[in-house]
Amino acid sequence: MYYSPGFRTNENTNKRRRNIIRVIGEGSVTVQPDIAKITLGAATENKVLATAQQENANIITNIKNELKKIGIPEDSMQTIDYSIYPLYDFSDGKQVFSNYKVEHVLLITVADINNTGLVVDTAVNNGANIVRGITFDTSEYSKYYQQALSLAVLNAGQKAETIANTLKVPLIKEPTLVAENTRESGGPIPFQPVAMVKSEASTPIQSSSMEIKSEVTAEFSY
Asked: Nearest to residue 134, comparing CAs of 159, 110, 150, 164?
């Protein structure tokens, strides 16, 4: 029997063709945060720029010194913003210079999450008049993310099996491709603090659990 070369080529192509099931696997791990990051600082105003700067520097220095006394090390207090800009009033439809404003904002990392309220109160009681927010995180993020990634791979396999069983086709359980999908995977939990008031009692700040997520794309043959 005679077969043309073209027919043989099509036959070989069909033999090489794979049937693919492509799925997205998802995994997540719920953990309790163990560190807090607080964004706070001081704003000062004065008609004389040098005076506004000096007043601000005094407040920030005082805040840092008092935080050190309650166990916050120097390297856990980082400047993340320092800005100077003029302020204006409007009079008879015209801008009239009023003051210079200086803002110095710190990012404070609190290793003992139970001290979050104490840190905020200590800063406020010593001149901080900016509290922009608090986020909670875990010091072992990489460890928990790897767990979530493993669960995502398992989930991908379960999804592929479900599809294959529904189609009534034999699934090759070893995937031909697994790719990690990069995206926002959980991350720090934002906390919006209430107005800070100087008091003897520490401001109660309670964190909630955080979810660390991972996602993969996987392909299986059948």
From this structure: 110
